[in-house]
# Entry
Amino acid sequence: MASDVVIRAQQISKHYRLGVINHGTLYRDLQSWWAKARGNPDPNAALGGAWSHSHSRVEGDLFRALEDVSFEVRRGEILGVIGGNGAGKSTLLKVLSRITAPTGGWIGLSGRVASLLEVGTGFHPELTGRENVYLNGAILGMSRREISQKFDEIVDFAEISQFIDTPVKRYSSGMYVRLAFSVAAHLESEILLVDEVLAVGDISFQRKCLGKMEDIGSSGRTILFVSHNMAAVENLCSKALVLTDGRVDFHGEVKEGIQHYHAYFGESEGINLANAARTGDGRARIADVWFSDTEGNRLPILKSGQGVQLHICVDPLAENCRNLILAAGVTTLRGEGVLHLSTETGGLVVQHFDARRVFTCTLPRLTLRGGYYSMNLFLSSNGVVADWLQDAFRFQVEDADFYGTGKLPPEGYSTFLADFSWAVAKE
Amino acid sequence: MSSESSPKAKEWDVVIAPRVKAVDLDLRSVWRYRDLIWMFFKRDFITFYKQTILGPLWYLIQPTLTALTYFVIFGKIANISTDGLPPFVFYMSGIVLWTYFAACLTNNAEVFSKNAQLFGKVYFPRLVVPISVVMSGMVAFAIQFALLLVVTIGFLLAGTELRLLWMALPLVLLLVLYVACLGIGVGLVVSALTVRFRDLAFATGFVTQLWMFASPVVYPYSQIPEKYRVFFHFNPMTAPIESLRALMFGTDGISISIWLSNIIITLVLLILGLVLFTRAESNAMDTV
# Structure
């Protein structure tokens, strides 16, 4: 039994010191030391007060990125590590890949570990594809002989054979990523750590990578896969580890893990309007808002091409709520308008209402591209602003196979997806 | 699941735990990554070629112009003795060895800041980088040393009174190894300290410059008044520079006592550098 376990983490913790490490200069360190020596308060100490105790993971100048994390992974298992932003996923991977040392606890690993923390690390733009394959392979821990044996396979997989002797500075970003992933994927290791590599490249290549990873998994190698892409986690992984605030929240079957994650996400990281800045006379108020799919299941993250409904709950707070106009404006994080969904343009007329109403806006096919967006909510009654929330909340859209062709417009060429078709005919 | 409080080393190939040992020199894994040392060495060499117009010609221009400058300032204007050697040969022999030392020192001092991106992404024994830095420096040294030989032979052909001891040339390799050790030692001490104190990075170049004038590069040790000679025991670059000239041209050389104290200082610095470096490497990425 025990020999089957290839990764064992035992009460791992990782603490970062806040403030202190940021002195950074000899002068300040001497200043602190001199103040201490004379019994004065440290002039460079982080300012305490309310902030430093408001968060359970911050204690004095310590930040607990990971606390008491224990788990085991068996040979051939594909473990998906999921959790919200800042839950400690990346820190866990950094500790596992020995980039940074844990503060407490220990990890035992059987076999060689390869990490795909970020593909293409160490690629030098002046070197050719061939030279970079050797350099990158060596950085990842391969010997020259090993790379030579696999060289053709690597180049074939990356689909760049004719450019292999061109400096990589002339590569397109897609070629660059393909080559880099290919090197890492061909590294023979018993344990593979993967962090969000699939966020890059076009969809057909992403599929190929997922396929490659499945091959790796079925060949008895163990994979730790960190991702926000729940679909990929569900497809690939057999087990899931859910991290919340640096602690293990759930460890078990992947389906349950994802449900657990969604439940948690919906509860505490779901859309919360309590802190949004509001203006307006308050005769009516936006009380709640959420996204769902067309069947009404709540969605924490949206996908391009998906049928999406936006639900907005409005309470009347005064008697005479008439001629209501409700608008939801989607902007980029820099505030550029992307979509404006208004009951006025949508042709919905609400003459009068006296109790809570749920407004539902249906987008049969979401045309936003992957990324983060901000939402403005606007409510007016009788032409007077009743409730206006700017940057009310932010939400994430994931790129998906919008056109069914496995391809999307290249990055930077389109912020928006449109339904279209092409035809060609003789004139 | 049993809950052990400490790992059994036999069960696992790799155990990751907080660093407790003062010195944890994992030379075995450095050896396992020997191909990476070679790849870094090759990368530095190739990119140097491709990025500069004059390429390796710089290796020749730099010591030639420096030697000429010193020849004018220290030889002609200040009129400092050159131990009976042609001034140009005297300066160049000092410059060649000093340049190698300075390159080892300054490049190793920047190991963490220059490789922050790489160190933050992938694990490999960090010692691989300083070793490849020292190797890349040796290429420049070899080219410059060849230039020194060519210049010396030129002087010999021109009939200058100068001896060149061919037999002793292989011993120069020992001097280079000594300088490499010293350069790694000092460089790693500085690199580990710059993780914590960024301002040291600015001081490095400046202090290296001053250090050169405290070493017998532009003047011979024989010109130092007796009462100041004791200070040269504490400058570990004294012995190699003086000995290079003694080995090649048969100058007086340096006393055993200076050699001994120089070697001891170098060993102490090398060990200190390795200790501080291995301690800094496991947590450096949290601060850089």
Notes: Chain B has twelve helices and one strand.
